[in-house]
Amino acid sequence: MIDRLQANPEMFAEAFDGESVLIDIRRGLYFSLSGAATVVWRLFESARIPEEVIAAIGVASPDLDASTIAKAIDAMRDHELLISAGTTDAGAVALPLDPGEGPFEAPGVQVFSDLAELIALDPVHEVNASAGWPTRPAGFPDVA
């Protein structure tokens, strides 16, 4: 059995000017994906085996080291941008991937927490009569 990954559907994502910005409302984090990382994100819109994505990008951009794509996938998994989509048989036939027109620049995955409290605040629903309005959500992680 082989693990598959997919783009986390809880992320709000927008692509523009060769960059993708993703927002995790639950944790108040936002992410910047650049270069081949934007292609990785798009290719994982459907559940995929990471090696399929790495190979597809390698065909479009043969000068890009496969290990840099693997590291970007690992970083996206660590930050919960990519999540498990279950497993598949080792002999399962994958649909062809079209990464788009290469070559691609090296992938970049950046995480920002400077606006975490503002992103996570829900001023309409997070009201507490004794604490004021709005309040920090219960269980909100420290992200300083």
> Would you identify the CATH architecture?
Alpha-Beta Complex
**Overall residue-averaged pLDDT value:** 82
Q: Strand tally, please? A: 6
Radius of gyration: 18 Å
Overall number of structural domains: 1
Biggest sheet overview: 4 strands, antiparallel
Strand content: 15-25%
The dominant shape is globular
Strand-and-helix sequence, N→C?
Answer: EEEEHHHEEH
Placed side by side, the strands forming the largest sheet appear as 2-3-4-6
Query: According to CATH, what is the topology?
Result: Outer Surface Protein A, domain 3
CATH class: Alpha Beta
Low-confidence stretches: none
Distance between the termini: 39 Å
Helicity range = 25-40%
Specify the structural class.
alpha+beta
| Number of H/I helices | 4
